[in-house]
Amino acid sequence: MFRRSLSTVAKMKPVTIKCLADVCVIPVSSPSVSDEVAKIQLLLKETGIKHTLHSAGSTLEGEWDTCMNVIGQIHEMLHKEGVLRVQSDIRVGTRTDKGQTAQDKIDIVHEKMKRGFNN
Amino acid sequence: MFRRSLSTVAKMKPVTIKCLADVCVIPVSSPSVSDEVAKIQLLLKETGIKHTLHSAGSTLEGEWDTCMNVIGQIHEMLHKEGVLRVQSDIRVGTRTDKGQTAQDKIDIVHEKMKRGFNN
Amino acid sequence: MFRRSLSTVAKMKPVTIKCLADVCVIPVSSPSVSDEVAKIQLLLKETGIKHTLHSAGSTLEGEWDTCMNVIGQIHEMLHKEGVLRVQSDIRVGTRTDKGQTAQDKIDIVHEKMKRGFNN
Amino acid sequence: MFRRSLSTVAKMKPVTIKCLADVCVIPVSSPSVSDEVAKIQLLLKETGIKHTLHSAGSTLEGEWDTCMNVIGQIHEMLHKEGVLRVQSDIRVGTRTDKGQTAQDKIDIVHEKMKRGFNN
């Protein structure tokens, strides 16, 4: 079961709101991290979460708890590979006015640049 | 139960590694966010999670899933208050070589500054 | 001249190391920011800096002072447009072991995923 | 002079708006970074910039170009010390509606928590 730890005082409750979580994971070990980034991509694929890779991180799309748990799995995987310290930067957004995918966000900007902000 | 959503394809598994998660929450609404930040502090207190406030965010200490879930609760609370979009930046670190609290990190730096790096 | 302010006590000196600066700009005003993001893209084009747009920000490539100054120009542009508060998250990396473009970083990961980490 | 590089195509212009720049510097080398963080604190002191240390970074206060230049000096200092790759996360905010120091931001939150949001 998920929330089984008694040592954790904090009250949890399911957070199922959809989010876009853009994460940049830094294995604090060697300057070359492309091996680790490739392994992260394979793990993301394996979990089945929707994601896209860009030059400064990966954007995950899904429910809050799921996205955040998957990023935690990345940390644990890297630690198992021998990385002593892992640091991530996560930019995460939620909104209630409309649903929007990562691709939607790019499309609307490109469209507005073309149209000249007439709308 | 925690992972009850069938709509979420991604495989979750408990992530219980301790982490330091420093979060800066931005309610994208009005330029003055001190009301929201105060409400966030009250929610943090209510959940029971270990946390400290600084000028650029709050640092949470605890198990991965717990910390991340609590940050998700903040987003949901703000949405319930009427904020349409919430964006957070999370700096989260895990390490397997030693345990370290947020206060430890500050103490060791101050100590090294005094000692002149003799160690 | 650039460093003309006497009110600024801090000592500046040129920082010309190449960097990759990935920035996510948040105009803290309305939930819909696509107009602002489109204007940011036009400003980036106008300055002549090398940049690429992705769903969670824009990656700038160039000398440190230049990249950071251009991001500052974005803030000033948005303020001129009437945005009262602008918050950015910048992930910036520098390295001395080799030069690497944003596209290089993606290419090497894709290559390693294909090759199965044999190298 | 500051903007002397001809190799940089991008157009720079002074950005003197006041900002709060919270930076978390990660020397991607060894898991223990307290030595480097202590050196960063000493460099900050030396430059004369207003700054405060917390467990997840340091908050700089001053004009945009100055703050960002000082962070660049940190990267260069670490590279001189032999660190091959340095990655920073910068949360930077500017606002035109009022001036606010890092301490102000904390004070107002504490005050609102006490007053119970009556205002």
The termini of chain A sit apart by: 49 Å
Order of helices and strands of chain A: EHEEHEH
Helical/strand content category of chain A: alpha+beta
Using the coordinates above, name the CATH class of chain A: Alpha Beta
User: Main β-sheet of chain A: number of strands, strand sense, barrel status?
Assistant: 4 strands, antiparallel
Uncertain spans of chain A, ≥5 residues at pLDDT below 50?
1-7
In round numbers, the mean pLDDT of chain A is: 86
Kindly identify the CATH topology of chain A: Alpha-Beta Plaits
Integer tally of domains of chain A: 1
Name the quaternary structure. homotetramer
Question: What is the compact description of this entry?
Answer:
Four copies of one chain form a homotetramer. Chain A has about 120 residues and is an alpha+beta fold.
Q: What report would you give on this structure?
A:
- Four copies of one chain form a homotetramer.
- With 119 residues, chain A is of the alpha+beta class.
- Chain A has a single domain (18-115), classed as Alpha-Beta Plaits.
- Chain A has three helices and four strands.
- In chain A, strands 2-3-1-4 form a four-stranded antiparallel beta sheet, covered by helices on one side.
- In chain A, helix 1 (34-47) packs across helix 2.
- The termini of chain A are far apart.
- Chains in contact: A-B, A-C, A-D, B-C, B-D, C-D.
- At the C-D interface, helix 2 and strand 4 of C face helix 2 and strand 4 of D.
- Strand 4 of chain A pairs antiparallel with strand 4 of chain B.
List the defining traits of the structure above.
3 helices; disordered N terminus; Alpha-Beta Plaits; Thiamine_BP (chains A, B, C, D); Thiamine-binding protein domain-containing protein (chains A, B, C, D); homotetramer; alpha+beta; UPF0045_domain (chains A, B, C, D); MTH1187/YkoF-like (chains A, B, C, D); 28% strand; 119 residues
